[in-house]
Specification:
Helix content is about 35%, strand content about 25%. The protein is of the alpha+beta class and about 325 residues long. The strands form three sheets. It has a six-stranded mixed sheet with strand order 8-10-7-11-9-12, sandwiched between helices. Helix 3 (about 95-115) links the parallel strand 4 (about 80-90) and strand 5 (about 115-125). The radius of gyration is 20 Å and the shape is globular. It binds adenosine-5'-diphosphate (ADP) and magnesium ion. Adenosine-5'-diphosphate binds near residues 11, 30 and 122.
């Protein structure tokens, strides 16, 4: 199968998903064209997944399609942006039709679910690598960022933390228990918090998505904002499944394992007071922003040593 047949068969259908009015020219020309309303900013981000690094060799292609777009869309959620479209740069060792059908299926489901239409891409031969650029829009000047946290703000996270990281120990489990199936689901099928991100606009002082682990990602907020924080580890939202499969280690997963794609957001006490119930219900307060730089953990046997936080591709310490 040639490159153009491959694109037509597997990827063109994703260009026809609804919600694409802003994409005035999609797949088939030298560039795609996205129309940006005059009162909006374009918010965009690219994410790459490399076989053997971001997903295991031989990983299910349908899960890969979903996860790759979920991870990219999660960055839009963190900024409070409205998803619009994405491009796909796909490098494949061979054009295996069964693999392509599975990958396109996972990607297509994610694309419909997140409201991101495929607007173009690039297809090349080489080791398996998936790069996705996502585009969103937001009212001019309103995007959430990492740099707005101020002393006195409260620190919140969405959902539960640590599940996806715990799943890594069970990827080859032949007959997973219900608890193991739950954490595996959190790894294979993450849900970027797009609606939550949008509803945080106007309330959050800073926001980030948790892709590398809470300590690492909250650390990015603290550095970008020039502040510190105390987090009460006993308040971390941990799923019953994580507690069952990891026992006394569960909090460590909640603090430092990645791939959950939940949001970490800071909110001033004044904004929190007037936040709608429906927003409050989705967040758990875990700590407070302080003038003193660094991250202090209450109620944890584990200490955060210096900057040894999260995953850094080119070293141990970021
Ligand atoms: P060019 O050589 O001008 O860069 P290509 O031949 O690479 O264009 O691609 C032709 C068209 O197919 C372009 O519109 C491009 O966006 C689209 N395309 C290529 N690969 C993919 C892909 N994996 N998914 C979606 N669209 C793709
Ligand atoms: Mg061209």
């Amino acid at each position: 199968m040639g490159e153009f047949d491959l694109i037509r068969r597997y990827f063109q259908p994703l260009a026809e998903h609804k919600g694409s009015e802003a994409v005035v020219l999609g797949i088939g020309d030298d560039c795609a064209i996205q129309r940006i309303p005059a009162d909006q900013d374009l918010v965009f981000s690219i994410d790459t997944m490399v076989e053997g690094i971001h997903f295991p060799k031989g990983y299910c292609p349908e899960y890969l399609g979903w996860r790759a777009l979920a991870a990219a869309a999660s960055d839009l959620a963190a900024m409070g942006a409205d998803p619009v479209c994405f491009t796909l740069a796909l490098t494949l060792p061979v054009a295996d039709e069964q693999w392509l059908a599975g990958f396109a299926m996972g990607l297509s489901r994610a694309s419909e679910c997140f409201g991101l239409v495929l607007a173009g891409g690039d297809t090349t031969r080489g080791p398996l690598v998936v790069s996705l650029q996502v585009h969103g829009t937001i009212k001019r000047g309103e995007a959430l960022s990492r740099s707005g946290a101020r002393a006195g703000d409260l620190v919140f996270v969405s959902g539960t933390l640590g599940d996806a990281g715990a799943a890594l120990d069970f990827l080859d489990e032949p007959e997973p228990s219900d608890d193991i199936a739950f954490v595996l689901g959190r790894y294979h099928h993450p849900s970027p918090r797009l609606d939550l991100g949008k509803s945080l606009v106007g309330f959050g002082s800073s926001c980030i998505d948790i892709s590398d682990g809470l300590i690492a990602d909250l650390g990015h907020i603290l550095r970008a904002s020039g502040v510190g924080a105390t987090v009460d580890v006993t308040k971390l939202p941990l799923s019953p499944a994580l507690c069952n499969v990891k026992g006394s280690e569960a909090a460590r997963y909640g603090l430092s394992s990645g791939d959950d794609y939940e949001l970490c957001v800071t909110v001033s006490p004044e904004c929190w007071k007037v936040a709608p119930e429906q927003l409050k219900e989705q967040l758990t307060m875990i700590g407070t922003i302080e003038h003193d730089q660094g991250l202090r953990l209450l109620g944890s046997p584990h200490s955060v040593e210096g900057d040894a936080l999260g995953f850094d591709h080119f070293g141990g310490v970021s």
